[in-house]
């Protein structure tokens, strides 16, 4: 009798477990939340993951490859062989797929594709990703640079500072800028969209492939109804200065992708998506997706162990806590094209609350404190890199000499690495600001995004070893900030020291070198005017060229060997001047329930491809 009771109890427990298992719902417990859902402003992986699953691009990466493509909203991938790449690589023809519907039922048209590209180019928000399309198509780095070339005047003279409207003398020129520059570059020809580049640019296809949400296709009719650009040449500038929260797409998304956007619950840091049952491919097996920002590791871990989460953002320091659980799968040694860097702001915004008094008086730092090389070198020597990789990352990271990851052209492992040494910290602090930093003392904050334990440990090391090297003189605050708050603070130039990663937009060295070290790179605004002046000034050690010029020369070089040599020259200068501090290149680790099937890695993807997975016990 007792034996039968045990058997019955076992069956009952199994039935309860099956009842709790829902193969139609996927819960991802991650860190933080999106910054914005506007595809032309979003420039972070948290936002990108949502956009990846809601919107679609013309083409997509094929499986795990970063160089092979497959059609998405275009029916063919343009090649020279199929006649869709013409003019020596300057013209790309995309046949647009028919009978595809947006989530609201509207049919996709070639005009939607044209509008999507043009709206993004004309909006081109500061700190956003649209520079890539400007550079790929037009050979310039921004809308304003192109507009100034066309009009022949600085933007500050073209527009009225109070009204934002073009001054009377330039209004027709501003209208013609759209008609003669932007519009002819993206044209509808029957069922095709034709994109014309000013010169051949090899990474163009990578720049517009799925995961690059800046090239996602929006519904023109819906965008206009929401209050975005109306598609007219006579009005385009009215939207060019739109701030993040002002965008109708800030917390709303509607594309053609396998998932529909339902809600972004800001209080819970939770995004909900549901399957698009009218998807032009087969509908997704997972019918509901919850992307939930849970900053506390213990909570994420408990959710995974109980089966309340299907996958979680793992803290590598605590990875061993999950080993041995038969219901949890740990996938290790996933290749990445990513780096984590500690960066300096060489000219901090004077309104910043992260520089104390704003003076070098023992209770703060002067805004340009980190324009001094010895101040930067002191911080570089205060990070115990080996301990970080061994103890915090559990070996899932590697040292790199600069912000260029291993695996890309120009990576040189023989370049020197910064070394952890408390005596070196002290020696550099004594030299900083001609000894005034040591004599007067200093105080500032080091910031990281809350919930990211690896970056937290870096910030804590900077605090510990600076204060150890200069007891009573160094006062360092470690500042955990919510992800959107952190990003906003960096973009406003308020953080003197911040720890931030970069995932490749496209697999080319220029995407890292330009981003981190060029005066027009995405991080330049976060690194301050002092940084921009430094890298744009000609240098004897660079043969009379500026670092900017050398980076541009390397990007344009077509001979791989010559190009690699230029990148090594650039990196030597970067290391010698301690422009920023590469902390590590991550080695990917994924943690999920064993019932998750179909997941695959691709280093270009900003997060999960929920369409590819299903759940099966």
Automatic annotation (TrEMBL):
Residues 68-523 form the Solute-binding protein family domain. InterPro entries: Peptide/Ni-bd (IPR030678), SBP_5 (IPR039424), SBP_5_dom (IPR000914). Pfam families: SBP_bac_5. The keyword tRNA-binding does not apply. One of its GO terms (cellular component) is periplasmic space. Transmembrane segments: none annotated. Keywords: Signal. Residues 1-19 form the signal peptide. One of its GO terms (biological process) is peptide transport. One of its GO terms (molecular function) is peptide transmembrane transporter activity. This is Extracellular solute-binding protein family 5. It comes from Fervidobacterium nodosum (strain ATCC 35602 / DSM 5306 / Rt17-B1). The lineage of its organism: Bacteria, Thermotogati, Thermotogota, Thermotogae, Thermotogales.
């Amino acid at each position: 009798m007792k034996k039968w009771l045990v058997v019955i109890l076992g069956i009952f427990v199994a039935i309860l477990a099956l009842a709790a298992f829902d193969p139609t719902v996927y819960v991802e417990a991650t860190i933080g939340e999106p910054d914005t859902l506007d595809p032309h402003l979003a420039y972070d992986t948290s936002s990108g993951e949502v956009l990846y699953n809601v919107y679609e691009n013309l083409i997509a990466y094929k499986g795990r490859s970063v160089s092979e493509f497959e059609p998405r909203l275009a029916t063919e991938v343009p090649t020279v062989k199929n006649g869709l790449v013409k003019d020596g690589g300057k013209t790309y023809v995309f046949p647009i797929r028919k009978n595809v519907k947006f989530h609201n039922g509207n049919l996709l048209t070639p005009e939607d594709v044209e509008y999507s590209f043009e709206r993004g180019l004309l909006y081109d928000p500061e700190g956003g990703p649209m520079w890539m399309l400007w550079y790929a198509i037009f050979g310039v780095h921004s809308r304003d640079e192109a507009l100034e070339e066309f009009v022949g005047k600085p933007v500050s003279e073209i527009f009225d500072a109070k009204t934002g409207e073009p001054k009377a003398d330039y209004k027709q020129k501003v209208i013609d800028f759209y008609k003669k520059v932007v519009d002819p570059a993206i044209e509808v020809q029957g069922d095709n969209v034709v994109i014309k580049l000013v010169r051949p640019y090899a990474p163009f296809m990578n720049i517009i492939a799925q995961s690059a949400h800046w090239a996602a296709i929006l519904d023109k009719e819906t965008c206009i109804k929401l209050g975005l650009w109306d598609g007219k040449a006579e009005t385009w500038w009215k939207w060019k200065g739109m701030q993040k929260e002002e965008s109708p797409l800030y917390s709303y998304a509607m594309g053609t992708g396998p998932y529909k956007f339902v809600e972004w619950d800001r209080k819970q840091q939770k995004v909900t998506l549901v399957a698009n049952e009218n998807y032009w491919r087969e509908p997704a097996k997972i019918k509901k997706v919850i992307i939930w920002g849970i900053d506390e590791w213990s909570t994420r871990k408990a959710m995974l162990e109980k089966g309340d989460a299907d996958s979680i953002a793992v803290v590598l320091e605590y990875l061993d806590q999950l080993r041995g659980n038969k219901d949890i799968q740990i996938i290790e040694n996933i290749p990445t094209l990513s780096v984590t860097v500690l960066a300096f702001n060489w000219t901090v915004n004077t309104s910043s609350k992260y520089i104390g008094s704003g003076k070098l008086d023992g209770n703060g730092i002067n805004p340009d404190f980190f324009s001094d090389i010895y101040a930067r070198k002191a911080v570089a020597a205060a990070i115990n890199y080996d301990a970080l990789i061994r103890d915090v990352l559990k070996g899932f990271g590697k040292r790199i000499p600069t912000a260029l990851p291993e695996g890309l052209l120009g990576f040189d492992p023989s370049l020197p690495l910064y070394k952890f040494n408390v005596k070196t910290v002290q020696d550099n602090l004594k030299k900083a600001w001609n000894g005034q930093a040591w004599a007067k003392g200093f105080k500032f904050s080091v910031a990281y995004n809350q919930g990211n334990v690896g970056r937290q440990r870096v910030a804590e090391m900077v605090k510990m070893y600076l204060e150890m090297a200069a007891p009573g003189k160094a006062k360092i605050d470690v500042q955990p900030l919510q992800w959107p708050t952190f990003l906003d603070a960096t973009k406003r130039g308020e953080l003197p020291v911040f720890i931030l990663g970069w995932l490749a937009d496209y697999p080319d060295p220029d995407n890292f070198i330009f981003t981190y070290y060029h005066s027009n790179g995405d991080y330049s605004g976060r690194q301050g005017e002092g940084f921009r002046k430094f890298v744009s000034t000609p240098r004897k050690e660079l043969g009379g060229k500026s670092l900017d010029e050398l980076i541009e020369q390397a990007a344009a070089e077509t001979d791989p060997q010559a190009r690699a040599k230029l990148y090594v020259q650039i990196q030597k200068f970067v290391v010698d001047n301690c422009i920023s501090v590469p902390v590590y290149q991550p080695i990917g680790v994924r943690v999920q329930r064993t019932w998750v099937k179909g997941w695959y890695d691709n280093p270009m993807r900003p997060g999960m491809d929920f369409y590819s997975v299903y759940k099966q016990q």
